[in-house]
């Protein structure tokens, strides 16, 4: 069975092969942000702050380009992490991000992102312990989107996540406190419309 590092390297090699030939053929006629809507699957490698290790998981995302240089992304993911092999934490992050493309209209465009999310979490622990909660969170990061052809692109991003502190969960929006909660790396295939 492949380790997470080997799986990540395999994904990178496959992604490079998938977009290298079409990118060379269509580079002059394509550009990030020229289509208005994209949807697609994504793979996520997330590492919570206190986890024993990170894990790969799956999700979906949709992007709406307001202009070639500005877009909105909505996503939902699923991840599961084990702590000390006795506690399992399942999280369903639902995120909304603003994307600012640094080279709009080009076939390869880096971008900055920032946004907010709602994180539904289920914890199962020893002796039948079970708890569910939801928290608000903020995230910021950067990424790169590359056109494969007229109807597909691939992107990768890194985002750091801050979740609201459990102690400020019931406070009003201005009095909430946030704590660093870990990071996410995403790799997505976008179908463009």
Q: Mind telling me which CATH architecture this is?
A: Beta Barrel
Number of separate domains: 1
CATH class: Mainly Beta
Tell me the overall shape.
Answer: globular
How helical, in percent, are the residues? 10-25%
Q: In this structure, how is the largest beta sheet organized?
A: 8 strands, antiparallel, barrel
The number of helical segments is 1
> Rounded to an integer, what's the Rg over CA atoms?
18 Å
**Mean pLDDT, nearest integer?**
85
User: What is the number of E strands?
Assistant: 8
Poorly predicted spans: 23-28
- First and last CA, distance: 37 Å
What is CATH's topology name?
A: Porin
Structural class: mainly beta
DSSP strand (E) fraction? over 45%
Main sheet strand line-up: 1-2-3-4-5-6-7-8
Q: What order do the SSEs take from the amino end to the carboxyl end, as H and E? A: HEEEEEEEE
Provide keyphrases for this structure.
193 residues, Porin, globular
Describe, in plain words, how this protein is organized in 3D.
A hairpin with a 6-residue loop joins strand 4 and strand 5 (108-124). The protein starts with a helix and ends with a strand. The chain has one domain (4-192): Porin, CATH 2.40.160. The chain has 193 residues and is mainly β. The protein is 12% helix and 62% strand. An eight-stranded antiparallel β-barrel has the order 1-2-3-4-5-6-7-8.
């Amino acid at each position: 069975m492949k380790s997470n590092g080997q799986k990540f390297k395999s994904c990178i090699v496959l992604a490079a092969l998938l977009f290298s030939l079409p990118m060379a053929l269509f580079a002059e006629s394509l550009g990030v942000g020229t289509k208005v809507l994209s949807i697609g699957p994504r793979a996520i490698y997330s590492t919570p702050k206190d986890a024993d290790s990170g894990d790969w998981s799956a999700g979906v995302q949709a992007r709406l380009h307001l202009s070639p240089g500005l877009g909105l992304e909505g996503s939902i993911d699923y991840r599961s992490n084990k702590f000390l092999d006795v506690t399992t934490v399942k999280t369903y992050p639902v995120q909304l991000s603003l994307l600012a493309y640094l080279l709009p209209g080009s076939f390869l465009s880096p971008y900055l992102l920032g946004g907010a999310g709602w994180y539904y979490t289920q914890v199962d622990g020893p002796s039948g312990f079970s708890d569910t909660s939801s928290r608000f969170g903020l995230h910021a990061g950067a990424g790169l989107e590359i056109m494969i052809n007229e109807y597909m692109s691939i992107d990768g991003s890194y985002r750091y996540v801050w979740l609201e502190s459990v102690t400020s969960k019931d406070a009003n929006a201005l009095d909430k406190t946030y704590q660093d909660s870990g990071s996410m790396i995403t790799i997505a295939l976008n179908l463009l419309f």
